[in-house]
Specification:
disordered N terminus, mainly alpha, elongated, three-stranded antiparallel beta sheet
């Protein structure tokens, strides 16, 4: 293990050119820190503008909210809320059959993203992030 003599390694942005909802961060290996690649939403406002119909259905402040309002929500929270909302039939009956195939696709893509992040595979994580955004675009456009 590398000795840092009291200096804690700083994290660095691996790729700032990712789609607007994801940023991958890689941490250096040290005595205290470990390598971690993560995906995060940098702006809930940007997410809500990109997928307003889906956010109205699935995120806090709406009648059919699935996700708790304890903190700012991100894209993966939206994906989870949509898949759970479809699975538990939380949304209006007229929307469920429209969202069901999109929710299945999003659930698969989220699993693939989590696997890529766990494997420290930034290029694959970036591909999955892009695929999630495209799938959310399709789901948004399918809403009545």
């Amino acid at each position: 293990m590398t000795q840092h003599h009291g200096k804690i390694p700083q994290h660095r942005i691996v790729d700032e050119a990712l789609p607007f909802t994801f940023k991958c961060v890689e941490f250096d290996m040290g005595n205290v820190l470990f390598i971690r690649v993560s995906a995060q939403t940098y702006s809930e406002t940007a997410m809500r503008k990109a997928w307003p119909g889906l956010c109205r259905l699935a995120l806090p402040g709406d009648d059919y909210s699935v996700a708790p309002a304890a903190r700012e929500k991100g894209v993966l929270d939206l994906v989870t809320a949509l898949t759970e909302g479809v699975h538990f039939s939380v949304f209006p009956k007229e929307v469920l059959p429209i969202l069901a195939p999109h929710a299945r696709e999003l659930e698969q893509l989220q699993g693939q993203l989590e696997t890529a992040l766990g494997d420290h595979d930034v290029p694959q994580a970036k591909q999955q992030a892009n695929a999630i955004e495209r799938a959310l675009d399709k789901a948004e456009n399918a809403l009545p």
